[in-house]
Design a protein that fits this description.
Number of helices: 5
Order of helices and strands: HEEEEHHHH
Distance between the termini: 54 Å
Helix content: 25-40%
Shape: elongated
Radius of gyration: 31 Å
Strand order of the largest sheet: 1-2
Largest sheet: 2 strands, antiparallel
Length: 148
């Protein structure tokens, strides 16, 4: 389990509000039934969305068998048996990241000199116009202006 950093008080009737973020993440909506689990030794209370007695794979409620803390229907068990020999583990798709070409870095003194020239040529130009001409960001222009 991981901590969420959220806490909620019990009201006078012993009720608690489950935060909206947690409900959305867990797919719990108004009217859904919840199942409670208790570990008295660890003083731990756990809540889970109640799915009832149904197949873990297809949610069928007919011809269920209990296997390793889960219910499985006869059809899903049969399908697993049939596909067992044919099943191939999918090869994970590795996506290549497209790297942007790095601009050649211009030394600070050259950037300052170019900005000085641009300001002399176009004293009324906006900061974004200087940035486009020098091929740098507006924040870089601001920093260069401070150094001038």
């Amino acid at each position: 389990m991981k901590t969420t950093g959220m806490s909620r008080p019990l009201d006078s009737l012993g009720r608690i509000v489950i935060p909206k973020e947690i409900r959305l993440t867990m797919g719990i909506y108004a009217g859904d039934s919840l199942e409670f689990f208790v570990d008295p030794e660890a003083c731990l209370l756990s809540v889970s969305k109640y799915n009832g007695v149904s197949c873990k794979m297809c949610n069928s409620i007919e011809e269920l068998t209990y296997f390793k803390n889960s219910f499985l229907c006869k059809n899903c068990i049969q399908e697993l048996k049939e596909n067992n020999s044919d099943y191939k583990i999918p090869i994970p798709v590795v996506r290549k990241t497209i790297s942007k070409e790095k601009r050649p870095s211009i030394p600070l003194d050259q950037q300052l000199e170019k900005l000085r020239e641009l300001i002399r040529e176009n004293p009324n130009a906006k900061q974004n116009e200087y940035a486009q001409q020098l091929e740098v960001s507006q924040s870089r222009i601001s920093m260069l202006k401070k150094l001038l």
